Amino acid sequence: MATSASQTLRTTPFLKTPSLSLSSRQSLSSAFSVALRPSRRFSKPLVVIVKASGSLDAKPTVLVAEKLGEAGLKLLKEFANVDCSYNLSPEELCTKISLCDAIIVRSGTKVSREVFESSAGRLKVVGRAGVGIDNVDLAAATEHGCLVVNAPTANTVAAAEHGIALLAAMARNVAQADASVKAGKWQRNKYVGVSLVGKTLAVMGFGKVGSEVARRAKGLGMHVISHDPYAPADRARAIGVELVSFDQAITTADFISLHMPLTPTTSKILNDDTFAKMKKGVRIVNVARGGVIDEDALVRALDAGIVAQAALDVFTKEPPPADNKLVLHENVTATPHLGASTMEAQEGVAIEIAEAVVGALRGELAATAVNAPMVPAEVLSELKPYVVLAEKLGRLAVQLVAGGSGVKTVKVTYASARAPDDLDTRLLRAMITKGIIEPISSVFVNLVNADFTAKQRGLRISEERIVLDGSPESPLDFIQVQIANVESKFASAISESGEIKVEGRVKDGIPHLTRVGSFEVDVSLEGNILLCRQVDQPGMIGTVGSILGEENVNVSFMSVGRIAPRKQAVMAIGVDDQPSKEALKKIGEVSAIEEFVFLKL
Fold this sequence. Notes:
Layout: E1 3-9, E2 31-35, E3 47-51, E4 61-64, H1 70-79, E5 81-84, H2 90-96, E6 102-105, H3 113-118, E7 125-128, H4 138-143, E8 147-150, H5 156-171, H6 174-182, E9 200-204, H7 208-219, E10 223-227, H8 233-238, E11 242-243, H9 246-252, E12 255-258, H10 272-277, E13 282-286, H11 295-304, E14 307-312, H12 325-328, E15 332-334, H13 343-361, H14 377-399, E16 409-416, H15 426-437, H16 450-456, E17 460-468, E18 478-484, E19 500-507, E20 510-516, E21 519-524, E22 528-535, H17 540-550, E23 555-562, E24 568-575, H18 581-589, E25 593-600
Parallel strand pairs: 4-5, 4-6, 6-7, 7-8, 9-10, 9-12, 10-11, 12-13, 13-14, 14-15, 16-17
Antiparallel strand pairs: 1-17, 2-3, 16-18, 18-19, 19-20, 20-21, 22-24, 22-25, 23-24
């Protein structure tokens, strides 16, 4: 593979063609657009303009389906016709939506596929007044060319304050003592609490809310540690917080405050196994998402005295059933999802979502967009398998990072025979960012918000282009992702230069993993992957394959890359399902296997 030249590309923000910017066309104030940098391969810039309604001078209509602060409504009314209709049934919403260009909801209104279909193409923006978007069908929104925006920052201080309020109330038995006094009792000895000063608080998730909780806890004299694989160490040090591994956090903490998103990785992350590792008498606060705790396991931990108390603002099912054992437990303080419920936060959310919706209707690219904009069919068709490859390489790379290591520096290398102007890599970079960030974040990363999201998390992504000799018929020969200055849970993924390195190619339209560290492999990126470093000797494929077969785990692909015969080798195995803990334990017990890791795709 001859290399004729190489160059480093700057990571640049999305560009708008000045002559086609909607902001310079006042008559299109009611249109929604996505304006992208023009490519020399196409005769026209990549611009999508969708008229909102009626004449070009008509105001768009915004449906506010749940209560919104007056400041937000005022902003909306300056730009659009505003219809405040609350408590709509699904049928009423589907009937009304065909007359609207945008809708603003909180968590109580479901914006389903039926809603998008009923809009007949008119609905252009969905605004979620808050962070979570579980009530919006993102896939349907994207299919119908509808932008979804949220308001992720206005609730930060309110949620942090509520976390601290629950922390103090729990430590001093405020709720229980209040109920006792109102019942005519005076039980001072029963409700003796514990002090916060000098205690260790583990903040699980050092994002906006987590860092604000840490800042306030430091003011209360607590020793604060945190676990977050993406948190920059310098930002944590600036407020006196030590970043530690997950196990170190939960085993040393007197108090644990949860501020992580609910993802497949964090679902029930506090369970019987993790509770067993904690200090006896630990106290837990959750103002994040109910699903990060196995609620049945928490009841068992409370009954066993492992967890002394819990203060919970969120639950797996909301509202929880009346007979919920966790809510009724005498050592649990419960509130009905009040994290964002302050007058100031509600006004802040109203302003933030109103600004985002108005900006989107004006054709501006919103930093808080949570789904992808429309992409020209010819570009998407050609890049489709490489888009999948890019995201999966990102997912693989970040899963190879050992716990406690902060991901700060990522280098992406593209090898192509095409000239730089004939290959726009922004979509590929966005998908790599998506793969790296989404597994442990509630943020939805796409072409609109990728660079913004990476910058917000202190993640620097640089790009390098290797120009190859040969035919430019295929857009790319390979994509390589490197993560620098981190430790790896699979040492063989570390390249000779010290970075975690994974590389992939598209073969017959299917993404393949072709390199891990210094080892060449060839395995289809379908299902999941098991990587094993082993002594290169006969029978290893059969041994591991038999263990998986006994567990009814189907093997789709298997590849072995080695340094030299009878030396070290890396075996990459594609599996359809996740092996059980017992199967993984058996694989680890094979004497010739030196290390292994299971990676979800």
